[in-house]
Design goal:
The protein has three helices and seven strands. It has 193 residues and is α+β, with helices and mostly antiparallel strands. A seven-stranded antiparallel sheet has the order 1-7-6-5-4-3-2. Helix 2 packs antiparallel against helix 3.
Amino acid sequence: MIITAHIDVAAPAERVWALVGPGFADVGAWATVIAHSEPTTAGDGRRCSVSGMPGVDEVVERLTAYDETARTLTYVADTGLPGYVRHATNTWTVTPLGPDRSRVAVDARVTVPGPARLAALLIRIALTAVGRRTLRDLRRHAEHAQRSRATSDRHEASRRAGAGGDPPPSDDGRLLATAISANAVFSMASGLV
């Protein structure tokens, strides 16, 4: 099963890549499906505590390819996969679209064993929903950092000029709705398997 997705981010590629590449082990800081993450003892991957995905509590992911110049990396899930997934690899690429815009592309390769293939469509839907949610989390985090820096600069300029600044942006609850929807789809897929 091949699942691809991409998202455009209103932040420089360097800032987005810092989250994806050098910050690989810190995915728990921005991805809502990851409750906590830390580097593996071998230093070649991350250990992730997962929330909101039935059948998955902790996943250990190991980097198999990493290219700082091309801003791309590939990792494989070594342990913690649910029974309906035999093997999973994921490639992330960050491409600049301009000085303050970038595109993040994800290419996931998932092997579903025998009986689980009967629910392959539901598994694909669930994994696609989780992947898109993770991309939106990344965009929100990167853009918020971009806005925070711009807002901080404006606040400082306003403070110096004696004027007030703009309030920070707020979350409108879309994240919760997305999480609930993805969880429902994933639960249906697990039930069928």
